[in-house]
Amino acid sequence: MSLRGRNFIDLADFERFELRQVLDTAHDLKRKQKRGEPHELLKGKSLAMIFMKSSTRTRVSFEVGMTQLGGHALYLEPGGTQLGRGETIGDTALVLSRYCDVIMARVYGHNEVMELAKHATVPVINGLSDLLHPCQIMADMQTIEEHKGNLEGLKITYVGDSNNVSNSIMQGCTIMGMDVTIGSPKGYTPSDEMMKRATALSTRYGTTLEVVSNPSEAVKGADVIYTDTFFSMGQEREKEKEDALMPFQVNKALVSKANSEAIVMHCLPAHRDEELTSEVMDGPHSVVFDQAENRLHAQKAILALIV
Ligand code: CP
Ligand code: NVA
C-alpha cells in the first residue's frame, strides 16, 4: 500500500515497512541534494503551515524542503489568520484544502491536529503537538542510521521529562526494532496511555521497553542517549520539576556510563547546561546538528510520499 494521501500525525499509525520507505527516501533525497541532482517531485504543489507556537527548525526545514521539491510553502500564524479571531479549525481545514495540497500544523492540544485532519481533504502532517513529534523522530532515526549503520537491536535511552518527543521515540524506535529505555524521575514518566500503546508495539515487534528511575542505570549499554528540555512549550517553569530532573542531566559522567561509542541526541532547542551540558553538546558524542539537518531530508521524504 502506498503512503499517498495518508496523514502523518502519529507514528503508531504506520507499519515498519512504511517507516522504512520514509527513511530510505530520506537517505536518497539527502544524497540527491548533496550532489545537486534535481528532485522536483512536488512541482507546483503548496504546503500550508499553521504554527500555533514558535519554531525555528520545523518552519525553516519545511519551507526550504518544499522549495527544493519544486513546490511552495505558506507560513500561517494564528494572529495573521482568522483562526485567531475564532474561525473554527474545521472550517479552516476545509478552506485550506481548496488551495493547498498538504497541511502541516504545530499545535498545543493533540486534538487540534486531529480536528484539522478530520475536516481536511488533503493530507495533514503533525509538526508537533503536546503529545507527539513524529517528524522529529523520523529525522532522528535517519541520523542514527547514518552514524550506526542500522536501527534494529540498538538500545536508545531517553533521559529527562517524558513528553511529546519521548512519546514518539517510544513508538517510532520500537516499530523499527530498537530497544527503548526511558530514564525519568517519579512524576515525570510516560502516561499510562502512552505506555500501553508503546508496550503493544514492543510486544508486536519483539523489542524491550522499560522505564527506569535511576539515570546511570538507564543509560547502561545504550547506543543512543537522547534528552530534551525540562519544560516544553506551554509549560510553566517549576522549581520542583527542575530539582527532580537535574540528576538526569546529560553530562560527561552520565555519557561515560553508556557504550563508549554512544551518540548523544537532542531535538533542539537545547537549554545548555540544564538538560545537556555544553561540554557534551559540543563534544565528540554529539550528533545534535545532524539531527537538525535531517529534519529537512526526512520531511521532504514524508511530503514526497504522502502528497
Ligand atoms: N526540534 C524542533 O521541532 O525545533 P523547532 O521548535 O525549532 O521547530
Ligand atoms: N518537547 C519540546 C520539543 C520542542 C521541539 C516542546 O514541546 O517544547
List keywords for this structure.
Rossmann fold, 2 domains, 5-stranded parallel sheet, 9 strands, 43% helix, globular, binds phosphoric acid mono(formamide)ester, binds norvaline
Which helices and strands, and how do they pair?
Elements: H1 16-35, E1 46-51, H2 57-68, E2 72-76, H3 89-99, E3 102-106, H4 110-119, E4 124-126, H5 134-148, E5 155-159, H6 164-175, E6 179-183, H7 192-205, E7 209-212, H8 215-219, E8 224-227, H9 239-245, H10 252-255, E9 263-266, H11 278-281, H12 288-306
Give a verbal description of the structure.
- The chain is built from twelve helices and nine strands.
- The chain folds into two domains: 11-133 and 294-306, Rossmann fold; 136-292, Aspartate/ornithine carbamoyltransferase (Rossmann fold, 3-Layer(aba) Sandwich), CATH 3.40.50.
- The strands form two sheets. A five-stranded parallel beta sheet has the order 7-6-5-8-9. A four-stranded parallel beta sheet has the order 2-1-3-4, with helices on both faces.
- The longest helix is centred in the N-terminal third of the chain and has 20 residues, at 16-35.
- The chain is α/β, with parallel strands linked by helices and 307 residues long.
- The structure holds phosphoric acid mono(formamide)ester and norvaline.
- Phosphoric acid mono(formamide)ester is lined by residues 55-58, 128, 136, 267-269.
